[in-house]
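TL;DR need structure tokens for one chain.
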Amino acid sequence: MTIKHAGIALIIGVVFSFASGLLFPGNVLINPVDQLDYAQAIGAIADAPEVAHVMISLSIFGMLFTAFAFITGIYPLTNQSTGVANTLLRFGIMLSVFEWCILIIGDGMRHIAVHLTQRASATTDAAEATMLSGLSLDVWVSLVAVFMAFVPIFPIASFLVGIGLAARIPTTNLPKLASYGLVIVGIVGFIIYFLATLAPSDDPNVYLTIYNLLLFFGAICFAVLGYGMIKGQDGLTEEA
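>> reply
TL;DR here they are.
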């Protein structure tokens, strides 16, 4: 498997992740609601559960494509050199794959929450509907806790991958700028994480919006790196 194919997989992963985030019911394009309000969020999902299932699956595939690109394309590059930056890149890749595994587990739990909501809407038994809705809420709270494990890991992984790739790329080009972009994402993300945990009385929607913008910017950086891998730019080839 060449790094060119890994670059294609990385771009596909980014596209899938973008699409799933934009089209998931209640998010941006389909009946947008306050995602911190469970009643509104689950209500938007209940109106389009089939779309929710498809978008969750698309999100999972997006992370699998991205992990594939990192493992088969970028990680082998770390065998070509030594040094601190190279070690940081290796650890950053491992940490990135670990965080995507966390998100995949969370998405699996979202599948279950949506399924329970569908069953609650379909039943004519009030007691059963109440029970299923309660189970859906329990799963939803648990998946939020799982997703919270991603929040502090994401900026660290971004920072390490960015530092490692920036050191590998000798010339100032788009992939090198994208690598520095990941470093910025890591620094800002870590600051936002600490502000959100140390000041819980602040409006969480502000932190959520900033974090989503960081994810958006980081995804663009990934797409640029994928393009660089396809073009075989300096520092992103097997022969480097």
